[in-house]
Structure formats: C-alpha cells, structure tokens
Amino acid sequence: MSRSAPGLDRVLRFLRCRSPGIWFDQAAEELPLLLIDHANCEKKAAGTALSLLYRYVDRPELLFRMSRLAREELRHFEQVHALIRARGIDYVHVTPSRYAASLMARVRRSEPFRLVDTLLVGAVVEARSCERFAGLVDVVPAALADLYAGLLASEARHFEHYLDLARRYAPEPVEEKLDELLRADAELCTAPDREFRFHSGPVER
C-alpha cells in the first residue's frame, strides 16, 4: 500500500479498520465494474457537494469549499471515464452499493444536525475512498495505479475539509455521531456482499 501521500496516515488512523485483502483481490478481477462504479461515485460526490451549495447559502466557508470540491470530483469523473473509454469498456448503468445509503440513513433530519451529519458522512466516505485508492495502487495495471496514486492526496484533503466543516457547524461534540458512522462504515466494508462495488464488502462466492 502506498503510504507517501499527504494525509494518508491520518486517514488510516481515522478509520476503524482496513478493507479486507480479499476485496482488493476481487477488485483486480473486476476492473470494468470497479471503474464504472468508481465513475458513478465521483458523480455522486460532486452532486452531494452541489446539493450542500444550494441548501446552505448562508455559510461562506462551506460554499467556498464545496464549490472547489465539486469541481475536483467532476475532474476525477472525467479521468475515470477517459480510462473506461480507453479500455473499450461500455459505460453502462450499475446499481449502487448499500454503502452510501446505509450511512445517509443515519443522518438526523432536524437542523443543524442534518448538515453536521451529512458532513460527517462525507468525511467517512472520502476517508474510505482514500484508503481503497492506496490499496488499489498495488493490484491494478499501471495506468489505473497512476490514477489512484494521483487521487490519494485530494481524497485525503476532502476528508479533512468535511470533518473541519462538521466541527465548525456542530452545536455539540461530534465524537459520538462520528463513532456511530465509523462503526457502520467498518461493518459495511468488511461484511460479505452480494455484488462487487467500489464501496462494497467482499463478495460471497
């Protein structure tokens, strides 16, 4: 696993567990599906940032960071999509994993907790993505490894931004909610899954 990217060490300390080695083995066998679902994840990440931009127009720091983040996520989508085309993969619809929906189901609905919890979910998702990028560098072909190595620093930075904003806007300490989300992330990423996805657990076979 590449450990030289700025922020990666903090990401690894933040998460409750590492992804199972078998997930990376399966990723190497499922490269078309990995790339398609990764592209979809980048689009969703941009959409989440844009949604926050529209909903919370009275928070200048959030507007600035989410605007920059949305642009970066769309650039990442373009990079992944270019690899999909270069490898002759049909960019088809695939169903999303249970991961993001399961985390978002834990977001409280009243404000300001809705905002804070959404930001905490963003921090967890970006941290997990960073951890998986680092592991993928060692198991995928060179062109894909270069992509994932290049994405490490930005994902670590996005994790920091989401976490900083959550703490900024929280009316109370975030540790209890964050622990709940991190425990859910650990279970979702290690428990057996029926379908391989970028944020799935290992697939039962």
SSE topology sketch:
Blueprint: H1 8-14, H2 21-29, H3 31-55, H4 60-86, H5 99-104, H6 113-136, H7 142-169, H8 175-190
How would you summarize this macromolecular structure in one to three sentences?
This protein is an all-alpha fold and 205 residues long. It has helices at residues 8-14, 21-29, 31-55, 60-86, 99-104, 113-136, 142-169, 175-190.
Total number of β-strand segments?
0
Question: Number of helix segments?
Answer: 8
Instruction: Please give the radius of gyration in angstroms.
Output: 16 Å
Percent of residues in helices: 55-70%
Termini Cα gap: 25 Å
Return residue spans where pLDDT drops below 50 for at least 5 consecutive residues.
Answer: none
The ordered string of helix (H) and strand (E) elements is HHHHHHHH
Q: Please tell me what the overall shape is.
A: globular
Strand content: under 5%
Could you say which structural class the secondary elements and strand pairing correspond to? mainly alpha
